[in-house]
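Hi support team,

I submitted a single chain yesterday and got back a structure, but I'm not sure I'm reading the token output correctly. Could someone confirm the output below corresponds to the sequence I sent? I've pasted both exactly as they appear in my results page.

Thanks,
R.
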Amino acid sequence: MSGESRNILEVLQERKKLREKQRLEEETGESRGKYYWNLLRNAIKPAIDSLNKADIKDIYVSHGVHHGRKINHKSAIHQVLYNRSKKEYLTVDANCIRIFKSDGRKKDIVDPEEDLNRLCYASQINQYVGWTYNDKHLVLLSKEFEVLSVNKAQTDLVTVVYNENNNEIVTGGVGCITSWVFRYGNRHVIPRKTAHAELMADEHFSLLVLEETASRTQKCFAATGTGVAIFNIFEGTLLSCQKDLHVRQITAIVFFNPLKYLITGARDGSIKVWDETWHLQLVFVGHTELVSCLAIYPYGPFIMSASYDCTIRVWSLETCDEVDKIETNLPVEGLGTMIQENDFFSYSTHSVDIWRIQHVHALHTSIGFRVNAIKHTDYPNKPVRSVLLCKDASVRIISPVSGDVITTLLVDTRRVMIDAAYAIAEETLFAVFDTGDILKCSTRINPCIVEAEWRCTNPEKACNYLLVYEYVVDSGDGDDSWLSMIRAITTKTAHAASVSPTKTSEKTLLLGGRKDGYICVFNWDTGEVDFEIEAHGSKGVLNMIANSKQDQLISAGKDNIIKVWRLFPFAQEALAPLMSFYCAQTPLHMCVMKGKLCVAFQEHTTATYSIVVYSLLSKRRHDHSPDDDHADSITGVSCCPRMKLFASSSVDGTVKIWNDENKIIRNLKLNAVPHSIGFCGQRGDILVGIGNHVHKIDYSSYMPRAQRFRMVTMKFPDEVKDKPLPYEEKLVCRLSKDDVKRLKAAHSSFKFTHFVDVLSEEETEEVTREKRHRDKMFALLESRDIELCKIRDGELAANRKPKATKATKRAAFDKYLKIFYNRPRVGLIADDPYIDDKAKEAAAGSVEEGEEEYKPDREPSGFFPPPSQVEMKKEAVAGEPLEPPYPVNPRGFIPNSVLVHLLWPKRQKLVPPEEKEGYRPPQLTDEQLAKAQMGKKPKREWKTVTFKKKEPTLEPSREPTRDSPRFFDYGEPDLAPSIEPEDAEEEEEEEKPSAYLQKMQELMDRPPTPKPAEEIAGEKTPEPEPEVPPEPEKPKKKREPKLKKPIVKLVSRPPPPPPPTPPKAPTPSPTPPPPPPTPLPDFVTQFIGEAWFDKYFPNCNINTFPKPWTALALVNMLLRLLRIADFCHKTPIVNAILMLYQQENLDITDVIFRTVMGVLNPSKNPPSCASEDEKIFIKAAINVFQVLGLYNKIYIMELMVQFLDGDREVRSFVMDAFAAIGLQDSHKFFPRELDGWDVWAIEGDDRKEQLKKKCQMWLDRWMMAFKMHLESTIEKMKKGQSVQGRVSKAQLGKPKVAQSKGILKGETDEDTGYAKGVIVTFDTLDGSVIDNATHIEAINYFCEMELEKELDRLRRRDSVEKVVEAKNTVLVLPKIGGKPSLARIGETHTSRCHARRETSLSVDYRLPPITARGYQPVAGELQGFAPCINLPMKTVYMNPFPSPIDLYDVWNQQPILLTLKSSQKYFIPSQSYINDFEQFI
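Hi R., thanks for writing in. Yes, this is the structure output for that exact sequence:
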């Protein structure tokens, strides 16, 4: 292809791409790259939005301690500990060790091999140490709680603690403490040092606490009585003893390592704090009972205490007061916390409580006085500083990073400071007082010195507010260079800077808002007013803020108007108005973030405390739901421009975080009132004035996840810590003692980064050297162990292997052959042709004795010898005392094993001896013998045995069912029945058997279960065959006849040995066969195969099923079973009871009703809808009540309670039940009445009883009202007065209504089926009508009364005449969220209902009274109303910030922005009124 053609092709391809690109841009309006970027962005946007919604869903964050979960125990709890590595809770009780997950869910139960009731966790080796209180044995357990070793201490162990710093165990005993170390691969624990306290030799060291350090000077504090002994752990020596630290016994002890404070709690409820020199620092008093436990608070210098007064308290070691109090239901036995962990636990005798800490704010700077306002500097290239206006007429400048006080301005406390402004570039502070005087102070020294004081001669021109406006052209960071250039060109300073480079382009202005409504600019040096302009009339300036990014100043006044000014720093007339807008409430606080203005409105009369965000550029107003507003006065607002967040604080104890669209993202609930607030960093850290101090809220405690993800990609400047200025001694000496105390009271809070001491270089080197040596020795031991294992397994070859000779090889070969040929030979067992006879002889015990099998030696299994070695009881001789046939303990105790052998003896012991008199072999008829010979050989040989009545025995099933603890499974008998001879009826004198054996004998005497009818019907009857002569028998071995099937009854004893051959007797005459056994009734067999029946009646047959076999007995048995069964089985059981009730027509309605109602209402834990099985049972029980037909008061109350506590499914089921018993409520008045009850406040175990009482009171009240209505109706009818009533169409449409035998008779239309008219005839009315009134009729009466009220309400609304007249309003206020408080136009300044805002206009304009509360007077009347005028003027709507909702309001279709150039609109207060007066109330 030529180059020219190739160029043409490329041109065509480029044109094609260009056309596609143009087409794409025309379709989408953007380029291909932007199109794909938007496509990708829109694809991942739903996922991001869902994550943001999930994060913002939980907006409430509450500071303090919150209850997580309660774990109940049946046995008393001895100890609770927390495994930090696995995040598990372990509880030790009298029976076992229970393990729970971090959220309180049960994980495992461990039964230790050794008896122990205390436990300690060694975190470094991940093992446990257990012991028993007041016992000397120390048990080392693995992480799976296997016993590794047991060691014995010198004295009884009272307490054990783990020394995590040195991986040791420290135990406390009688007069001494011992440190134990782990050795031999952490499989043994051995004592290292024992320290004795000679002065306390007889005392029990029940409380131990260690100093958190790995140094060799580590101390151990052991408490006993009212004193404490101090030991050196490493050396094992006693350092000192401190006695009489408390008046009563010390019951708790803890060591706060950062401050080296020892805190002790005593039986009298007091808590004392001691320093290293044993000087008392603090005493906390508040508990009314003994202090049971002390623990370190996970965050900050706080401690926690638990007491028997059912409280857990948090104490501050810095502010010396109680900061939190948690109420518990039971006395607290112990407490456990972990440093920097949000969860901790407490336990009482039978329960463990898991708590969670939400540490929202922490003490940042201790001031000593309340902080009324917090301001922050934002000067470029300068560290951020916070200015605190305190209640003691002082100003403190602090560093928000460290909390250190840089400098302080102290003023006489008798003067009232209103406001202060700080210029960080000039290091100058201005303060204004209520008299209008202004102080100019220098902040270069500490405390500040006053450079000048500007007196105010005219009180009307006194300042309410001060503002320092700092104009900076070039910030130096390069981020806003283009914006700085635009600002310089706009303010005409670029040329001046280029002409005179020495002249600075930055300027700082001091502005003030005066009481007369003017804004003035003060001269920086002299304090004279350089410029002033009227802003807010005579009301005065309330607030001012600077928007330096836009060269704007925003002011707010008491006239409820906000004005935006353009500021020219280098011009004489520095201010020019840009816009203004009216507010319905007073704008109390303001803050600005670029083009967004946040305003806090407050109006006490209307309870309005709202936050509104205005967009000054787009002229939009952002509102939020009134539910998100504060509930009390707003104390401050602040903004974080970098994160685009606003924050507001209120007296209601909350701090709310808002985004730039005024949507709440976090609601922080504090445990105190925030008096001031301010953002102190670009990340979103907040300073809050709480109490007499400043607290800090870290951004990580409230920032949503989406905001934190954004911060990952953002770059923040390093936080600079300002160092506090040293005190100027000359100035401090001039201050009074009170001022010095005020000056030094403010300081940064105590902060620590690590709880454990940091070792010095020498100690670190020594510890490292010891650890290195220890690791080397352990490695050597490990290598030796590995080498031994290899030698044992033959894997290690000798380094010096001996040379093999012919002799050694021959000896090795001979040894190998001996091993091979000398092994035992295994052969096959020879076949025995008479194996059946040998089996019989073995069963009879006549087998020849051979060589005994080898049995391993075993230790004695108990106090009692084995049964084979026990001599049987001899026959009693007259006159001799009876002896038991088993060994008896001298104390009279019979173990369970012996009792089991008595109830279920071994088989060989139950076989009667051959020589015992009274035994006779079984006798069979000739017919039975013939059938046995002709039948097929059975698979198993049976033997018939006959026993006397004095030896009743019973053999239980070999595999009992574990799920049937209340019923015994006897199984199918495996022995053939026997025929007892006639002489077996002889009675002999014997001891009376026990009640248990009698019960077993009665069960065994029951007839066997017959075969099903189908099986019997299908079984063929064998035809008679000719008799065959029996084969000749051997003289020694006589084979017994084998039966084909059982004949008479079952025997649970094993087969006896074959009896001796009796002499041949003449063949008796044939006897008739016994009658067939009685089968189980159908009402029993219909439940066989169901899960609940097989569980509680396993192997049900005629032998095992209890008698009598009647339906009534079965129902009573099921009713008893219903009380103890699980809920998963209660539903089929109650359905079975209902089936039997309907099938057999039983007359036990009351019994069934009471039993089922009792199951629904137990004393504790009634069934609820939270469990699916319990909910199904509730529905089944209601169905039973419906079938029983007892619609009494108890049943109706139960339905009401189930409706109150049920979910949607149960509530619908209950309403269907109400409709079935006659409820007529088509308008749902009854469920609405129940939903209106306040049942959420009812808690506790007796909740259902309280709900029943509430339902009973409601039913009694309406039953009384219904009966009174009936009485009044009967009285009216007796007097001949008319009575009106209403009958539904459905009732009249049925012909049965007119034909009923009651007192209501009606005539119906044959064509339509509906009644045209009703003729009611009352025969006789007496008191029986009232006595027979039912509760469902009372509920219907309630529904009818509610319907009448609703109809009356509708009639009254329709009867009101609405008069629409032309309104005389001239000025329309903007739409606001709350209801306005104005009753009449013109009452803004003349209202007498609000005395605090009353002005002189109330005297000039007295409004005449308005009759009828806003209704127009009757036409033609000229009295009793106020005259009015119509002013034909254009209506003006002040709505400069329209909202999207205004599109649906006709009054805001044409918004007009009012500025200073707008013409003023007036109205006459005395001659103006509004029509709909009541809508403003």
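A quick pointer for reading it: The mean pLDDT is 74. Let us know if anything else looks off.

Best,
Support desk
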